[in-house]
Amino acid sequence: MAVDYRNQTTLITGASSGLGALFARRLAARGSDLVLVARRTGRLESLAAELPNVTVTPITMDLAAPGAGAKLSAAVAERGLEVTSLINNAGFGTHQLFHEADPQRITDEITLNVTSLTEISRAFIERLRAQPGGVLLNVASIAGYQPGPTLAVYAATKAYVLSFTEALWSESRGTGLRVMALSPGATETEFFDVAGQGADGGTRRMHADRVVDLALRALDRRNPPPSLITGRMNSLMINAGRLAGRRVTTAALGAMMRRTG
């Protein structure tokens, strides 16, 4: 049974496109008011205009800048908003050999994918735990379950997100807050425009709306899982990697990425 979000105000980072924008549309359809955060003001305003039946507050902010959690918390407080659910979707990946990667780009990737996500979670989690029926969803990746040759930093950041979120799932049991890490595989979003072609390893990409539907279906359960891998083939691939061992899996992934890079 679909959960009613009419008493919720959901903050979504990375809301200007891809999974973030789709989460906004799906939750608005369920009645949630929204706080949409991203760098691109025009896209946020266009998305807000699509959602006339709920209150939508766009906040333009670069979450890769230092102190994003405190700045976002202050921006929400200044507007008199009470956030009851949070979707940490903002993030990006770099696809190249680590020794050839731009050092500043690596720093920005770690800051956005790890530091800002952690700061934002801390800034809001106490109020999320205090409200009935709230959600904390952190977008990880199947890359977080295994090493990622040519995606070394991205995979490592998503391993952090996965571990961090599963720990919060345990800490939040009994509070009414539903916590889950979402781990998509290759998905039809702008991710590959940023990371570069070949970052998907040549695997088939899932439609973004399917990923969001699976996530919300899992969150509709009485007791959602600590993490969700979207798609049967993605689950099989991760489980096969566990059985094969890290040495074999890492070598195989490295060979696959060299073929597609």
TrEMBL record:
Keyword tags: Oxidoreductase
Domain named Ketoreductase: residues: 8-185
GO MF term set: oxidoreductase activity
Domain of life: Bacteria
Gene3D superfamilies recorded: NAD(P)-binding Rossmann-like Domain (3.40.50.720)
Record carries keyword Oxidoreductase: yes
Annotated SUPFAM superfamilies: NAD(P)-binding Rossmann-fold domains
Family: Belongs to the short-chain dehydrogenases/reductases (SDR) family.
Protein name: Ketoreductase domain-containing protein
Species for this entry: Actinoplanes campanulatus
